[in-house]
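thoughts on my protein:
***
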Amino acid sequence: MPIYSYRCAACDTEFEQLVRSDTQVACPECRGRKLERRMSLTARPATAGKPADFSRLGPPASGGCCGGSCHNHQH
């Protein structure tokens, strides 16, 4: 679900909107539907130039989805 930038041709308002496959986009000011989709800038990674650390993703090192404290199912 991308966020797109738009400019309304009727009132020249610029806005951004989260767009799902069934979203009907309209200008928040005049409700106009004649919109120009504009190029958006993507967010820069929050690593400040350092390599991303994905080591904390996944199950805990102590085991299982809950650190081994649940004993109700197999991991």
Remarks:
- Strands lie at 3-8, 14-18, 35-38.
